[in-house]
Amino acid sequence: VNVGSAEEAYRRGATAFAKLAADYPNNPEYADGESAALQSIGLILRKRGKDSEAIVCYERVTAIIEGLAKGGDVEKRVNLAGVRGILGSFYLDAKQFDKAEAHLAGSQRDLTALVRESPENMETLGALAGAHFLLGEFRVTQARNEEATTAYALAVECQLKVVARSGTTPESLGNLAVFR
């Protein structure tokens, strides 16, 4: 299977799920299926150097998941924050800095709220570490070094909590351990 064939298969899947979601709006599984297919298409497009098309895909994914997350489902809210982070990194690479910051900060804000609601959820805490790190990366590109340092420190703090609660070693942090 080549990348073009995979992209076409995902496009057919996204189209089918979009039709099902429109025909059966009370069944969120169809919108979820469309979202998953579009995420795959976006990643394929990105890998193929079609960044503007990948951004369009992820904007659609964001809209779909925002609708799904309105019910308060934690998994959907975590997914939405993750998608915002990915979209923010796409915008960062495209040098659309205002949009990058909006999505990256939104991801961090959403995950912070989720961690406050469920501090024992290690998956969410790990995702928050990633959001802090991405926001730090963004701030470095803007020569906002103090803010970047703060974001990196928060990333390490979150990751250390994950390590402490999971029983793994700090060395599992890799490059983040340098900031300790």
Strand and helix layout:
Layout: H1 3-23, H2 28-47, H3 51-69, H4 74-93, H5 97-117, H6 122-141, H7 145-166
Largest sheet: none
Unreliably modeled segments: 176-180
Average pLDDT, rounded to a whole number, is 90
The shape, in one word, is: globular
Number of distinct beta strands: 0
Count of DSSP-assigned helices: 7
Report the helical percentage: over 70%
Q: Which percent range describes the beta-strand content?
A: under 5%
Calculate Rg over CA atoms. 17 Å
Instruction: Give the quaternary arrangement of the chains.
Output: single chain
Gap from first CA to last CA? 44 Å
Q: Report the structural category.
A: mainly alpha
Order of SSEs, N→C? Answer: HHHHHHH
Describe this structure in words.
By secondary structure, the chain is mainly alpha-helical. The chain has helices at 3-23, 28-47, 51-69, 74-93, 97-117, 122-141, 145-166. Helix 4 (74-93) runs antiparallel to helix 5. The longest helix is centred in the last third of the chain and has 22 residues, at 145-166. The radius of gyration is 17 Å and the shape is globular.
